[in-house]
Structure to design on (281 residues):
């Protein structure tokens, strides 16, 4: 595995509009033009013009004097291949996806080719821009929304912020959860912000319990942290549980989303067809 020393970070102010970003970066970094074009496609090159900074993907984009080109080249990041998500529903203004383990909700300055938004931009027909609405852990799988206009992104984000989206998860956890209150409510704050989860026992198999989790808030790693705190870490959780690197993937699925659709103006519910048949709780 490559070390951080193999990363290349360059920031170049355009002194003359002659030449392209690839030409400038080729001279400054020593990378081949092919490597640089691939890095552009994968979101590792940025351009700042005035107060606006955005990813630069087109090698032949016209530059202006005073523009600043940024290169964040990490061979490990760029070598990653995105896991393929499944399109659940296309509403036009937004899409619903079944995100697999390993696919990210959003990118970094080092690239965005392994994100659900970039996948949507490159594979949807008709082609549309994509905007992050909410996040699902890279290690988790399940339902995630992607907006395709700024207005729909704002409307959906507002629903999440105002806690008007019903979210349900399923998880296999270590131990016998039937010994706990049903539901078990956990309200431990996360990063000094309120966080609430209700955990329902469903069944036990081979010393592991299937639980359903309903969240009133959406804090980072909330389901994982609350289950671990309760003494029932999720199977495959390398961060908050006891899973080793060679254990199975995190057994956490976001299986249901329900909200007032900003496009149709009526309630909608999306659930994974392969979700287990939970008892009516």
């Amino acid at each position: 595995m490559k070390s951080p020393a193999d990363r290349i970070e360059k920031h170049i102010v355009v002194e003359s509009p002659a030449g392209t970003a690839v030409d400038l970066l080729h001279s400054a970094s020593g990378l081949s033009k092919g490597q640089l074009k691939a890095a552009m496609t994968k979101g590792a090159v940025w351009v700042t013009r005035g107060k606006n900074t955005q990813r630069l993907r087109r090698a032949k984009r016209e530059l202006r004097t005073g523009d600043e080109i940024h290169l964040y080249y990490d061979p490990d990041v760029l070598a990653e291949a995105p896991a393929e998500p499944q399109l659940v529903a296309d509403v036009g203004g937004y899409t619903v996806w079944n995100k697999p383990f390993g696919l990210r909700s959003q990118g970094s300055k080092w690239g965005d080719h392994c994100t659900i938004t970039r996948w949507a931009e490159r594979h949807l027909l008709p082609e549309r821009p994509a905007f992050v609405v909410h996040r699902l852990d890279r290690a988790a799988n399940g339902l995630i929304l992607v907006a395709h206009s700024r207005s729909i992104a704002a409307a959906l984000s507002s629903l999440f912020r105002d806690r008007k989206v019903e979210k349900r998860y399923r998880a296999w956890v270590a131990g016998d959860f039937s010994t706990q209150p049903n539901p078990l409510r956990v309200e431990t704050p996360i990063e000094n912000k309120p966080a609430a989860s209700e955990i329902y026992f469903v069944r036990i198999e081979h010393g592991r319990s299937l639980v359903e989790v309903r969240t009133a808030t959406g804090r980072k790693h909330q389901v994982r942290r609350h289950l671990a705190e309760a003494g029932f870490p999720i199977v495959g959780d390398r961060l908050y549980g006891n899973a080793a690197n060679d254990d199975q993937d995190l057994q956490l699925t976001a299986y249901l989303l329900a909200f007032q659709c900003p496009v149709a103006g009526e309630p909608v519910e999306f659930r994974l067809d392969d979700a287990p048949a939970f008892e009516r709780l």
